[in-house]
Amino acid sequence: MKFFADTAEIVAIKELAATGLLDGVTTNPSLIAKSGRDFMEVTKEICGLTDGPVSAEVVALDHPTMMKEAEKLRAIADNVCIKVPLTIDGLKTCKALTGDGTMVNVTLCFSANQALLAAKAGATFVSPFVGRHDDNGFDGMDLIADIRRIYDNYAFSTEILVASVRHATHILESAKIGADVATAPPKVIMGLANHVLTDKGIEGFLKDWEATGQSIL
Ligand code: G3P
Q1: In angstroms, what is the span from residue 163 Cα to ligand 1's centroid?
Q2: What does each C-alpha distance from 34 to 23, 29, 108, 131, 211 come to in angstroms?
Q3: Who is most buried in 49, 163, 186, 217, counting CB within 10 A?
Q4: Domains of the chain (ranges plus CATH)?
Q5: What is the reported pLDDT for 133?
Q6: pTM of the predicted model, to two decimals?
């Protein structure tokens, strides 16, 4: 499973990149607003921090303007992945962009039928929002399982990019289902390393080691 950082915060992306666990970055207009940075500038900076895809989202709602925005965004760097909403205009834009080799992430996916359309439009990634699905009384993981099944039935190559990830269980369950990518706040990804028994084990080993009076270096 690939891990993308779902943030536009440079420091947090750098920290995760330094672990060697970072495979890409996703942003959206809310995350750009939260960063307080200029969209084009911060996107360029993020593209320099990873070789993986960096999703940058269009804000237009109609296909012709989405195409114009996408033109500008994909000129930022080779690893820009254009993010479009799961609407008919977004799907048209997806089809046009992927047709000439541009990576596209179709976002705001809340149903398996929507994900089917994204795959048919040639999306590189589809982003089902599991946290927001849960928030609204549905089970985000049922959605991931349905999409996995449909994509496998037809051997679609669109990658399932689990988004709106809020906690470790979202990542665990998505990995068990076989989702391709999880995008999450870096602290959620870093937190996967934590276990109380790991901490306790280290403490016990170090106590016994100190008692030997030896040193490795
Ligand atoms: O990847 C989409 C994500 O940023 C949305 O997350 O927590 O706002 O639902 P959230």
Answers
A1: 6
A2: 22, 9, 19, 19, 50
A3: 163
A4: 2-212 (3.20.20.70)
A5: 96
A6: 0.96
